[in-house]
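REQUEST ID: PR-0412
SUBMITTED BY: lab tech R.K.
PRIORITY: routine
TASK: structure prediction, single protein chain
INPUT:
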Amino acid sequence: MSKAFEGKVVLVTGANSGIGETAAVRLQEAGATVYGLARREDALAAARSRHPRIHWLLADVTKEAQVTTAVETAAHRGPPIVLPLVWVLVSAVVSADPATLLAG
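STATUS: complete
OUTPUT:
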């Protein structure tokens, strides 16, 4: 049986708790390669222990350099990212355009 997000790469902000955590888990279960973003090392470590099949990255979405690094890391580690990149924002606004980040 095919999964709805098979072959897709998804970045989820706030993936270490609450709605973001639920979204990350459900997307991973639907076949996506999920990169969960967390702002704090301790939160990231705890989330990694609960969800080892999600790829975890340290990034604060209010800091453009950290978002750039997260997208570049996902692009180099995972399957090829084909735009449009699925980007799940949970209670945050990103000032960086993922297409622009991947173009460089």
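NOTES: The domain at 9-97 is CATH 3.40.50.720 (Rossmann fold).
REVIEWED BY: pending
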